[in-house]
């Protein structure tokens, strides 16, 4: 379906398809996103060239920016030709506003974008770390949308937590809110659509999961990790998260190799006894077939730590997952298992 909008600063009518708007919304929420990730999430049912041409056209219109992402072994990418990475521009953000695609309840205001006049490529370090974060979020989205129980989802990278006076209290790596309706048994949306929570309305009958993703690159001082845990504890207790997110999120901490994970766990648990946080490593967070949803996590609420599921017992076990998502239409359209 093709839609049109007349931009206030342009005389021409700008045509937009629903799929193109979906790309802009994904980029605004996830920041820097690899082209392959966009194809996996938004365009898995289309030929690769169709998605590539759409991204090329959006970049030509200056609605998105494009750069080459470096290869990086520590996030699991093989050597070879550098893939493209994309992000939202200020013009793309204006298009979303003109269409009313994102509400002005903090959702639109938090969208990540760059000026179309900015340099073509962000810093290499930013590309590596931010595409890792966006890949993690996209992996979760790709799996979780396969259950008909998913009523809505909110994801925002670089989530700014502010006080009632507007002061910045914390910037979370990514906030994820998942809403499940146990009564839903069939899919009522196109298989490629992410059902974003856009109106702030959450039914009392839904089951809600709130996650806060933090990635420790190995460069953060242990004192900083201690303060991070204390910040989560303080903002959970003073109802700041209740005011902004509807409830406190469960921190999910990803570290480099396991030799650092033990130190991170000890520091976190010393700062926040009984913390609901989960800990994993870059290598263990991704299940070979079902992504980060079914990765290996440990709970930091007790010492010694214990294995835990990302969403608790909400979706059963990983062995039950294939049968729970067997009716998802995307499986017949070329999507990855």
Quickly describe the structure.
This protein is of the alpha+beta class. The protein has nine helices and twelve strands.
Write the layout of secondary structure elements.
Blueprint: E1 2-6, E2 13-17, H1 18-30, E3 33-34, H2 35-42, H3 48-60, E4 64-68, E5 84-88, H4 90-99, H5 124-144, E6 150-162, E7 168-180, E8 207-215, H6 222-237, H7 240-245, E9 250-255, H8 258-271, E10 278-281, E11 297-299, E12 306-308, H9 321-324
Parallel strand pairs: 8-9, 9-10
Antiparallel strand pairs: 1-2, 3-5, 4-5, 6-7, 7-8, 10-11, 11-12
Helix pairs in contact: 1-4, 6-8
What does this molecule look like?
With 337 residues, the chain is an alpha+beta fold. It is 31% helix and 22% strand. The chain is built from 9 helices and 12 strands. The strands form 3 sheets. It has a 7-stranded mixed sheet with strand order 6-7-8-9-10-11-12. A 3-stranded antiparallel sheet has the order 3-5-4. α1 (18-30) crosses α4 and α6 (222-237) crosses α8 (258-271). The relative contact order is 0.11. Mean pLDDT is 88; it is low at 6-13 and 73-80.
Oligomer: single chain
Low-confidence segments:
6-13, 73-80
Any idea what the radius of gyration is? 20 Å
Q: For the residues shown, what is the average pLDDT?
A: 88
Shape: globular
Overall number of strands: 12
Helical content (DSSP H or I, runs of 4+):
25-40%
Sequence of secondary-structure elements: EEHEHHEEHHEEEHHEHEEEH
Q: What is the tally of helical segments?
A: 9
């Amino acid at each position: 379906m093709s839609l049109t909008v007349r931009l206030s600063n342009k005389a021409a009518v700008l045509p937009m398809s629903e799929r193109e708007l979906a790309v802009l919304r994904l980029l605004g929420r996830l920041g820097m996103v690899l082209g392959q990730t966009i194809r996996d999430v938004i365009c898995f049912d289309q030929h690769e060239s169709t998605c590539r041409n759409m991204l090329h056209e959006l970049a030509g219109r200056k609605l998105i920016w494009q750069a080459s992402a470096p290869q990086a072994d520590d996030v699991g990418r093989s050597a070879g030709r550098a893939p493209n990475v994309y992000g939202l521009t200020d013009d793309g953000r204006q298009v979303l506003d003109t269409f009313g695609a994102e509400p002005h309840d903090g959702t639109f205001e938090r969208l990540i974008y760059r000026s179309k006049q900015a340099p073509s490529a962000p810093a290499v370090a930013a590309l590596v770390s931010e595409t890792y974060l966006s890949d993690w979020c996209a992996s979760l989205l790709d799996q979780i949308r396969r259950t008909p129980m998913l009523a809505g989802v909110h994801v925002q990278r670089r989530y700014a937590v502010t006080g009632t006076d507007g002061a910045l209290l914390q910037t979370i790596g990514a906030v994820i809110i998942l809403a499940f309706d146990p009564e839903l048994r069939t899919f009522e949306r196109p298989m490629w659509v992410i059902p974003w929570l856009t109106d702030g309305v959450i039914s009392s009958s839904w089951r809600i999961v709130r996650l806060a993703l933090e990635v420790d690159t190995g460069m953060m001082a242990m004192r900083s990790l201690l303060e991070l845990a204390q910040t989560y504890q303080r903002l959970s207790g003073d109802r700041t998260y209740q005011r902004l997110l509807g409830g406190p999120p469960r921190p999910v901490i990803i570290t480099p190799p396991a030799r650092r994970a033990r130190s991170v766990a000890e520091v976190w648990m010393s700062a926040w006894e009984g913390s609901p946080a989960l800990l994993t490593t870059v290598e263990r967070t991704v299940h070979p077939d079902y992504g980060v949803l079914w990765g290996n996590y440990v709970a930091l609420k007790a010492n010694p730590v214990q294995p835990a599921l990302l969403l608790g017992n909400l979706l059963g076990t990983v062995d039950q997952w294939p049968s729970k998502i067997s009716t998802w239409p995307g499986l017949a359209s070329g999507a990855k298992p």
